[in-house]
Amino acid sequence: MPTVLRVGPYRFFFYASDRDEPPHIHVERDDNVAKFWLDPVRLQSSGGFSRIEIRRIAAHVTDHQIELLEAWNGYFRD
């Protein structure tokens, strides 16, 4: 489960088994894990985060969208 990015308390990662899904990123803080689709950026599951925190995380995903997509494509490239 490669970590792609860390911003403050958040860890951005994907699972090696995620290959068969569209590009996305999981975001973890403590016991909470959200999932965002990357193209376009949108929330798939909030995983226990508050709405305020989800907006904050969504802004990070948007700010780093290209970097996250490049990491996804680099990892899952055939």
Q: What can be said about the biggest beta sheet?
A: 5 strands, antiparallel
Specify the structural class.
alpha+beta
Radius of gyration in whole Å, from Cα?
Answer: 11 Å
Mean pLDDT: 96
> What ranges have pLDDT less than 50 throughout 5 or more consecutive residues?
none
Largest sheet, spatial ordering of strands? 1-2-3-4-5
What's the total count of β strands?
5
Strand content: 25-35%
Spell the H/E element sequence: EEEEEHH
Shape: globular
Q: Tell me the span between the first and last alpha carbons.
A: 18 Å
Q: Give the total of domains.
A: 1
Helix content: 25-40%
- The number of helical segments is 2
Overview in brief:
This protein is α+β, with helices and mostly antiparallel strands and 78 residues long. It contains two helices and five strands.
